[in-house]
Amino acid sequence: MTIKAQRGTKDILPEESTTWQWIRKQAQNVFQNAGFGEISTPIFEATELFNRGVGDSTDIVNKEMYTFCVGGADKNASSITLRPENTAGVVRAYIEHNLNRISPPQKFWYFAPMFRYERPQAGRQRQFHQVGVEMFGASEPAADAEIILSAVELLNSLGLNNLSVELNTLGCKNCKNDYREAIKEVIKPYLPDMCDDCKMRFEKNPLRMLDCKNEACQKIFEKEEVKKVILKDYICNDCKEHFDELIKYLDSLNINYKINKMLVRGLDYYNRTVFEIKSESLGSQSAVCGGGRYDGLVEMLGGSPTPAIGFAMGVERLCALIDKKEPEKLDYYIVSTNTAEAIKLARKLRKMNKKVDYDFQGKKFSKQLEKASKIANFALILGDDEIEQKFYSVKNLSTGEQVKVSDINKL
Ligand code: ATP
Ligand code: MG
To answer: Which of 124, 133, 210, 267 has the most ligand 1 atoms within 8 A of CB, as the residue to mutate?
Structure first.
């Protein structure tokens, strides 16, 4: 039996990789123009990093992690996990390399594979990719605006101009607690009717209940008295001021947004601003981007208190939204039955930064020309006459026009 790719994983073949390279290039431009440096962290980390850094009331930690025990029965056996997201790893690196010594804010971007053991479906894989940013050392609302702006700028650079940002504030340690308690109080009578996940969240992280996709739970959030609590402003003056200022910046930048009080985001560590960017045309897996502020995480993972904010976008979902890019053609395909000359010429032209290929299997001239017309802009014909009289016949494969060239440097 032939071996197939694992469920929920996908090969990216050359024809598709043109689109991928383009997305990566757009991200690199947008982020580097905004002062973000690229960071690459390992794809596996100590399991504990995610338990603590993503949070043990999240679906990611509870259900979706690829966790292995390495070292067998050895005393030093340790548990490692393929990263399900990148924030925890970047925070670990930030602390480990004392990146706080660089004057703040420190800004990073990445484009990298992530792993979650989820049920594969359209827009949901087990190995997928995220492109995202993290910024440390800035607590000002302008930092939130800058992060949301860079997400929007990336989407715009990909030709995605009509996606709306959904926005909410979760408040800070103090007001978040009041909100949590109020939600718990109003939900408590309905708890027996809620799903098992929400029963667990009720104890560990009640706000996460609002994120539940279960219909029975959703119905409870629709109840008048529950809705009233969800929609009521519990946030303190400082948090309100922060949010209002952020909104002023977004207005001044003409960024479309919608405030959504139900938006709590999946991770445990968010505070204040959270946001999501969705596209209706993606169907049920509609989120292309999720992000938020996580001011407590660096300290929680052993660093000094450092405000931080970031986002991640799903690259496969971006791919589904943009037009496929056609692979670029070669500049030249050398058509020759003299392999020794063709190989030398190919080497020379490639050094001149031309895209060049040639036949080294002794195929007939006509076959070589046929191939050339499929994959190259020009055929560079090197027959006996050309070699003897030291010239090249260059055939434009879209017009059919053919000229003689004596100096390769003038191609
Ligand atoms: P969802 O609600 O779709 O599960 P999430 O809240 O789990 O999203 P985040 O952790 O915020 O997702 O990740 C940011 C982005 O990464 C998502 O908006 C989505 O575009 C993408 N993403 C997340 N999980 C997957 C997956 N399993 N396959 C493909 N893309 C994914
Ligand atoms: Mg998810």
So the answer is: 124
Contacts of 327 (CB under 8 A, 6+ apart): 14, 15, 18
| Interatomic CA distance for residues 130 and 133, integer angstroms | 10
Shared domain check, 303 and 396: no
- 273-323 residue pLDDT tens: 999 999 887 777 789 999 999 999 999 999 999 999 999 999 999 999 999
Among the listed residues 266, 35, 252, 286, the one whose alpha carbon sits nearest the alpha carbon of residue 138: 35
Percent of residues, the chain, with pLDDT higher than 90: 69
Q: Find out whether 380 and 348 touch, Cβ atoms under 8 Å.
A: no
60 Cα: distance to centroid of ligand 1 (angstroms): 10
The bound ligand whose nearest atom lies closest to the alpha carbon of 118 is 1
375 found inside a domain: yes
Give the predicted TM-score (pTM) of the model.
0.92
Q: Which ligand is closest in space to the CA of residue 266? A: 1
- Please check whether residue 174 lies inside any domain of the structure: no
The verdict on the CB of residue 278 being under 6 Å from ligand 1 is no
CA 99 from centre of chain? 23
Quick check: CB of 317 below 6 Å from ligand 1?
yes
Residue whose CA is at the smallest distance from ligand 1 atom 8: 287
Q: Is the CB of 211 under 6 A from ligand 1?
A: no
Provide Rg for the chain, Cα atoms: 27
Domain, as residue range, for 309: 14-162+256-321
